Amino acid sequence: MSSRAQRIIGGALVALAFVSGSASAGLLVEADPDWKEGEVAMPPAVDESRLRSFFVSSASANQFFVDEGSVSLGEDRVVRYTLVVRTTGGAENVTFEGIRCATGERRIYASGRKDGTWTPMKNSAWQPISDNAYNRPRAALAYEHFCDGPAAPRNREHALELLRNPRDPSKSYGVR
Q1: CB contact set of 170 (below 8 Å; sequence gap of 6+)
Q2: For 93-117, how does the pLDDT look when each residue is reduced to its tens digit (9 = 90+)?
């Protein structure tokens, strides 16, 4: 069997396991066709004392943080947070983002400035979370912290608890 055929079959098995596991756990959620995103308010400036580090990949030397003061869960069931990425060379990237667990999508709302203000993204749209190098921090947050398959955290406190206590991704329903 060719490696392409093996990848296709493997992907189909992962998808089937996701659907059957989610259904048996009562977690299969259809994306709501009438879903509307709620109002989005920019979070406060990043505060060093509120940064919570999280593991992304042993392949990256960067450090990844979420500002716990920015974590929220809207009535639209979107988990919003400020992501801080620090490189070994000292550069820092700050973005305000959202994850929609029900659809496995992410969105970047704004980029943070050194003075604590925000610059809205010009092309801010919902996009699928893929597990590539650029999106790995979002995949880690979605599948190892905030989302249990398509289920969002219950509330802000639950989201913070999930951020502080990552789940084993091999036992998650998240498909990568």
Answers
A1: none
A2: 999 999 999 999 999 999 999 999 9
Among 88, 86, 87, 45, residue whose Cα is nearest residue 67? 45
Assigned CATH class of 45-171: mainly beta
Total number of residues shown for the chain: 176
Instruction: Please answer whether residues 121 and 109 qualify as being in contact, where contact means their C-beta atoms are separated by less than 8 angstroms.
Output: yes
Rounded Cα–Cα distance for residues 83 and 36 (Å):
24
Q: Give the CA count within 13 Å in the CB-facing half-sphere of 100.
A: 20
166 pLDDT band (50/70/90 cuts)? confident
- Over residues 35-74, the pLDDT tens digits come to 999 999 999 999 999 999 999 988 889 999 999 999 999 9
Rounded CA separation 87/169 (Å): 25
Distance of alpha carbon 143 from the chain centroid: 7
